[in-house]
Amino acid sequence: LVAAPISHSNASLSGPPAGGGLIIPPAQPDADVGNFHIRATVGRKGPPEVLGPYRVDLFCAVSRRLVRSVWSGTGGNYAFENIRTGPWNVVAYDHTGNYNAEIASNVTATT
User: Fold this and answer.
1) 38 pLDDT band (50/70/90 cuts)?
2) To which H or E segment does residue 93 belong?
3) Cα 46 → chain centroid
4) pLDDT(47) > 80
5) Cα 59–1–46 angle (5° rounding)?
6) What is the pLDDT of residue 94?
7) What span, in angstroms and rounded, lies between the C-alpha atoms of 87 and 32?
8) DSSP one-letter string for 31-92
9) Which of 40, 53, 71, 99 could join 94 via S-S bond, C-beta 3.0 to 4.6 A?
10) pTM score, two decimals?
């Protein structure tokens, strides 16, 4: 998982930012912070298997507000750390446009 900070103004679906990175949109103080995480892998199950990188967005399932955005690593692994339990909606986008987005709804973060 790539986690070097980048500017939100550089966020795009055109591919991972130079050097990879974590995109953090404007936060609501303390509203989404917690001691929980979501760690998973995203990718197209083969053949051929295509594991990444993908842009992965975390939305509050109640308000539909974008909370965080990360790029998965080349193996498709991603993580959202230090969040509340949820519920969350997780959306993974293929920046190449070859595949549809993958959506996991009502996800609960774990310790």
Assistant:
1) very high
2) strand 88-93
3) 22
4) no
5) 85
6) 87
7) 11
8) TSEEEEEEEEE--B-SSSPB----EEEEEETTT--EEEEEE--TTSEEEEEEE-S--EEEEE
9) 99
10) 0.72
